[in-house]
Amino acid sequence: MAGSGYTDLREKLKSMMPYRDGHKGGGGGSLPREPPDPSYDRKRRHQEDSGSEPSDYEEQKEEEEARKVKSGIRQLRLFSAEECAKIEARIEDVVSRAEKGLYKEHTVDRAPLRNKYFFGEGYTYGSQLQRRGPGQERLYPRGEVDAIPEWVHDLVIRKLVEHRVIPEGFVNSAVINDYQPGGCIVSHVDPIHIFERPIVSVSFFSDSALCFGCKFQFKPIRVSEPVLFLPVKRGSVTVLR
């Protein structure tokens, strides 16, 4: 996380909106996402009823969108199976420590099928926000989440720097997303007023996928076909610009 022209990102956020130092976040919630298109469900029902296929124009538009998304993505296979196993053991230790209540309150965020562990910096989002919508996310006051563990610096960040994925000193926030089988996260944009780009993600434990351009509906949860489906292998690094 970073903010250009400010020595402390909190100064930048205060200039945008007064920061509520007394704010306490609630439980788990979805990451911020764009407001749903109110016409989507209507269009979808019409297409299902009529049996019509997407027009050439719609297909071209989706292909162009997928091309633009893909142009901002870089993937590297940096971590061997042995390195993955070593890091995964450390992640299991984080989970164990969290279950024993050994972390600060805002280090751990629990949601169905997904637990999130903030280190270095943490922020409010989703149902924790007093006002909903993109741009309302705020950092917790300094010290309310635990520091980045040394093993993250030694086993993960150092390798990213050595391979010139990121410059030295770029990382001041590390987040572990621990997904259970069937777990996922809804479409969202990491807050642009909090996160400097690129967003760097490293995957462990199993292969997975990132999907772009999905529209979600809930109760029951349903999702549209993605504009871009990106396979993510165990031990791979995904750089999102």
- Sheet-strand content, in percent, reads 15-25%
Biggest sheet, spatial arrangement of strands:
1-10-5
Largest sheet geometry: 3 strands, antiparallel
The N- to C-terminal Cα distance equals 14 Å
Give me the CATH superfamily. Answer: Alpha-ketoglutarate-dependent dioxygenase AlkB-like
Structural class: alpha+beta
CATH architecture, by name, is Sandwich
Morphology call: globular
Output the CATH topology: Jelly Rolls
The average pLDDT is 80
Low-confidence runs: 17-50
Describe what you observe in this structure.
One of its GO terms (biological process) is methylation. This protein is an alpha+beta fold and 241 residues long. It has a single domain (71-240), classed as Sandwich (Jelly Rolls), CATH 2.60.120.590. Helix content is 28%, strand content 18%. The chain has a three-stranded antiparallel beta sheet with strand order 1-10-5. Strand 2 and strand 3 form a beta hairpin.
Descriptors for this entry?
Jelly Rolls, three-stranded antiparallel β-sheet, 241 residues, alpha+beta, globular, 10 strands, single chain
List the helices and strands and how they pair.
Elements (H helix, E strand, L loop, with lengths): L8 H8 L23 H11 L5 H16 L1 E5 L3 H19 L8 E4 L2 E6 L30 H13 L11 E6 L19 E4 L5 E5 L3 E2 L4 E2 L4 E5 L3 E5 L1
Antiparallel strand pairs: 1-10, 2-3, 3-4, 5-10, 6-9, 7-8
Cofactor: Fe(2+)
GO molecular function: metal ion binding; methyltransferase activity; oxidative RNA demethylase activity
Organism: Columbina picui
Summarize the structure.
One of its GO terms (molecular function) is metal ion binding. Residues 8-24, 34-49 have a biased composition (Basic and acidic residues). The protein has helices at 9-16, 40-50, 56-71, 81-99, 150-162; strands spanning 73-77, 108-111, 114-119, 174-179, 199-202, 208-212, 216-217, 222-223, 228-232, 236-240.
